[in-house]
């Protein structure tokens, strides 16, 4: 099996191969490291690659599995972590030059959970500075390259930009991101992968550099709903070091994946919100609604007593106030090498009064109640994830946020899943957002697993190396039946 084949297999298949001893974790890690070595100079998705550590862990995993001592189904699976997640002894920068020498003195709880289940950390991925931005850009530390267009630099989505790019390009099977205003879902949308915004408290934030503690949530990013569900299960659970995780029951979405949608009631977004999305995005959105309806779901028209833009204003107010309190010593230092687009976003918190901040928190409770009433009897609200497909970087307006459809999920503490739902005429992916009540990750994943995958596949996944190309030619000549195999992924096309 070629490196390209390995790195684009879904995790649930990789797990079966490893546990049955048909695939060595050493070979899988080497395949990922080879892809990173070949392509990340351009993609710039990784801040740091822990090659020696990963190889050591892979050898240990292989020995344990061969001896019959596997610690679970994810033993030997590589993963990448956003550069907010602390690993003791490793540098964690939060995407900022001012923290480039910041060595972590602890390991984040979520990382401990993943490592305890035998996962192998390949490295850290790029983020927007302090995670404060939706476009995915980073002036000083570099912007990851969206692999859907290798000729023209486009927005990878932020702030979990490196995680989105690394997964989309097949450098790693899955990755961890964080979401404060859409930072898991926007990279998922523009990079053509799946990402889950979890409910606050589902996943511990201990040891994860904060942006806005009221809103921050870590979340899984992968190339399929099933893999996102697997990673969500691995990440969740109570943590005595994070009070927000206490008292939440454990949930297992796996038994309900791919269950039919008969009896499921889905709300269509209010008509007034459609004007914010491009024609291509709306076409994919409407097609998804029709497909889900054909699968048995009931589509319901609803209205809301507020607009998504209203909610976004309050969400940003909380983000600005809390991030300024955390990072004001650098924001107020004009000599500090901060991203010129990020500094003013956080500096906005300087002028916010206590009254304005408390008003945003109080209004949050009111809007939560209003939203719950509007969705009474519904299982989810469906929207596009982003307003457009990935934008060329030279067209980005840094004074505007691309998070119109995502911020309300954070402000109201909802669960939200972003997943690919088509390929636009420009050859770029579109994305559907499934928004469910707090703590209802299982329903979001169930609906997402029923949504048909895009039919306009690209037939060659990512980049073919010389060995892969030679094998493709030889096998094509020797093939007894003419045709092709459609492989979901990204091509240089």
Q: Could you list some keywords that capture this structure?
A:
alpha/beta; Amidase signature (AS) enzymes; eleven-stranded mixed beta sheet; 11 strands; 36% helix; disordered C terminus
Give the gist of this structure.
With 493 residues, the protein is of the alpha/beta class.
How does the SSE layout of this entry go?
Blueprint: H1 3-7, H2 11-19, H3 25-43, E1 46-49, H4 51-66, E2 78-82, H5 109-116, E3 120-125, H6 161-168, E4 174-179, H7 185-191, E5 194-197, E6 217-222, H8 225-235, E7 265-268, H9 279-294, E8 298-301, H10 308-331, H11 342-347, H12 354-374, E9 380-384, H13 407-411, E10 415-423, E11 429-436, H14 441-450, H15 466-478
Helix pairs in contact: 3-4, 6-7, 8-14, 10-12
Summarize the biggest pleated sheet.
Answer: 11 strands, mixed
End-to-end gap: 24 Å
Give the helix/strand class. Answer: alpha/beta
Mean of residue pLDDT values: 93
pLDDT under 50 segments (min length 5)? 456-473, 481-493
Radius of gyration: 21 Å
Strand tally: 11
The amount of helix comes to 25-40%
Q: Could you name the CATH topology?
A: Amidase signature (AS) enzymes
CATH superfamily: Amidase signature (AS) domain
Order of helices and strands: HHHEHEHEHEHEEHEHEHHHEHEEHH
Architecture overview:
This protein is of the alpha/beta class and 493 residues long. The chain has a single domain (3-309, 358-450), classed as Alpha-Beta Complex (Amidase signature (AS) enzymes), CATH 3.90.1300.10. It has 15 helices and 11 strands. The chain is globular.
